[in-house]
Specification:
201 residues, alpha+beta, 7 strands, single chain, globular, Aminopeptidase, 7-stranded mixed sheet
Length: 201
């Protein structure tokens, strides 16, 4: 996970969901381009977001369109953080595609713009997405991350996620190898034995 805000303002950021974003035509029109700027900048700086090279505008536009469509059909959730009119962070989860796993979802990305770290945006985005999943009746919310992303993993644990698996030396990046770790948040309550979460897509 990576985090950031806009320059020098202390205004509390707005955390919008997909419906609130769609209700603001200016923000909705600019969202894919603003998301691309954040993601490309973070990946250029070495952020562990799943790309080796910065994603292109078309790739991010396709991604944001897919996530927004999923959010509007109940198959996902999007959260976007704004300081004023500037997008400073985003995150989303999507339901698993297999019919037998539709009750579960995967928290796929949390990204906060470079320059906006230290304001709690990552926590705000993740917390809002966790509540969205709970409200949508998701049973198990999963995620995976690079094991050296200690800031993100500390945040996830503080929100109740627990590690359920690890693939040693799975991620190859810049001539180095990193473990890939899998985390889960089970909403079904502690009174029953936790089933194994779905395998990653």
């Amino acid at each position: 996970m990576n985090a950031t805000t806009s320059s020098g303002t202390d205004a509390a950021p707005e955390i919008l969901d997909a419906f609130q974003l769609a209700a603001d035509p200016e923000r909705a029109t600019d969202f894919a381009e603003a998301a691309h700027r954040i993601l490309a900048d973070l990946v250029s700086g070495g952020a562990p977001l799943g790309w080796t090279d910065p994603p292109g505008r078309g790739e991010v536009a396709e991604l944001t369109d897919r996530v927004l469509r999923a959010a509007h059909t109940g198959d996902g959730a999007l959260r976007a953080a704004y300081t004023g009119r500037r997008l400073v962070g985003l995150g989303y989860w999507l339901r698993y595609a297999r019919p037998t796993n539709r009750q579960h979802a995967d928290l796929e990305k949390i990204a906060v713009a470079a320059g906006s770290h230290g304001r709690g945006l990552g926590r705000s985005l993740t917390g809002a997405l966790v509540e969205d999943a709970r409200g949508a009746g998701i049973e198990v919310l999963t995620l995976d991350a690079r094991a050296d992303n200690t800031r993100a993993l500390t945040l996830y644990r503080s929100l109740g996620f627990r590690e359920y698996g690890r693939l040693p030396d799975f991620v190859a990046m810049g001539g180095r190898r990193y473990d890939k770790v899998f985390y889960m948040l089970d909403f079904r309550g502690s009174g029953r034995r936790e089933a194994e979460p779905p395998h990653p897509r």
